[in-house]
Amino acid sequence: MKRGIVGAFHKVSAKYLPLYVAEFQFRYNNRLNPDIFAEAIRGC
């Protein structure tokens, strides 16, 4: 997670930290899913 924040977001505020954690959790849990985009928009 630390590498992702430094590499992609550069700065994270405490207010939005739970959203960043949820995004990294989703990415990790779906890392083997070949159609991750469909999985992401399914929740919309």
Strand fraction: under 5%
Rg calculated over all Cα atoms: 12 Å
Count up the helices: 3
* Amount of helix: 55-70%
How many E strands?
A: 0
- For the record, the count of structural domains works out to 1
Fill in the keyword field for this structure.
globular; 44 residues; 3 helices
Report on the structure:
- This protein has 44 residues and is mainly alpha-helical.
- The chain has one domain.
- Helix content is 64%, strand content 0%.
- It is built from 3 helices and no strands.
- The chain has helices at residues 2-9, 17-29, 36-42.
How would you summarize this macromolecular structure in one to three sentences?
The protein is 64% helix and 0% strand. By secondary structure, the protein is mainly α. It has one domain.
Give the helices and strands, then pairings.
Blueprint: H1 2-9, H2 17-29, H3 36-42
